Amino acid sequence: MATASCDAALALHMLHHVTDLAQTVGELSRVVKQGGLV
């Protein structure tokens, strides 16, 4: 997904499955527009 391409990003019921939480949250933040919601 392109950088700053979404108004919001959700990760419902899945964060406990990832091995690198910081990278995952960083990726969610990367795709959300400035002022968006993660």
UniProtKB/TrEMBL annotation:
Pfam families: Methyltransf_11. Residues 3-37 form the Methyltransferase type domain. The keyword Phosphoprotein does not apply. InterPro entries: Methyltransf_11, SAM-dependent_MTases_sf. SUPFAM superfamilies: S-adenosyl-L-methionine-dependent methyltransferases. Keywords: Ubiquinone. This is Ubiquinone/menaquinone biosynthesis C-methylase UbiE. It comes from Streptomyces rapamycinicus.
